[in-house]
Amino acid sequence: MKHVTEFRDPALAKNLLAEIAALADRIGATRAEPVRIMEICGGHTHAIFRFGLDKLVHEGIEFIHGPGCPVCVLPMARVDECIEIAERPGVIFTTFGDAMRVPGTRGSLMQAKARGCDIRMVYSPLDALEIARRNPGHEVVFFGLGFETTTPSTAFAIQAAAREGLGNFTVFCNHITVPEPLRALLGDPHMQLDGFVGPGHVSMVIGTHPYDFIAEDFGKPITVAGFEPLDLLQAVAMVLRQIAEGRAEVENQYARVVPEHGNPASIAAMADVYERRPSFEWRGLGEIDASGLRIRPAYAAYDAEEKFGVGYAAGPRHVPEPEGCACGSVMTGRMKPTACPQYGTGCTPETPLGALMVSSEGACAAYWQYGGARVAAE
Question: What single-letter DSSP state applies at residue 39?
């Protein structure tokens, strides 16, 4: 707890805020518009609003919320396919709790559970593996979801199932990668971004070099950051310093956790179990080449898509967003949550239209939890 407290020290925060203000003034002397910094990760978005960093930093800085919430970027069709699998006789469907309330066209997994499907929340794919061991008469499916942060644990579970010859365990693989959607965003001429704060937990696995293209190809600075308020303030200062000095580099604020080249064991497990999909659909971004992972043929026995004939194995399926839902625009930084016409009216935590309102990393959930309900009422 002392360690956490040190990363929330008010005196240190004031020093960093003063440094940020000086850098913002220096940059602002040469431009009229604010410095637009995208925090890629939804965990960073929640930390920014939880600690009020958006109100503490210099007025010349604007936080842009990026597509770093894996539940939020999942298209509705994939939620529908989860429910299709869960409705099959003898299936136990397991998932992280974050995905339970994400709506598809036929409701959410929580609602499917209420209708009688055997859907269980787990904290790890290893929990799902244990359920499969204890229920040999059932097909146990794990909803493999997330960026590089959670991808290795699913790979380890598949490797364990293969070693044991466990025939009733499969993974519905929806793991995705961070760099590819960032390349798509940077290639959009309508997106005006000055720098990035990168997700520390992703780089804990893959290191910092997968972001080299942001600096080298697009000339934008990025700083990989931790999740405490001082982490984020220091990362913002580092991005601003690069801009002020005319540099564009990949810097690592989170060096106490993130090694330059990532975690070798995790990288090896991912390479063994997964291969790139030719393309994968992202909510709000459409199809992005090589942005999704699928299970290699060597582990096809543990691939729910192949076993149940769903997902991309059955052919891609597109489901349009509900009318008036602006999840795509919010998630790609084109719109703030409170500008969505459905925010606080047609879309609330109790009656969500999109995943951003119910995911623990969703931007709409952050706005609502830390003051957005008041804004909606006003």
Answer: E
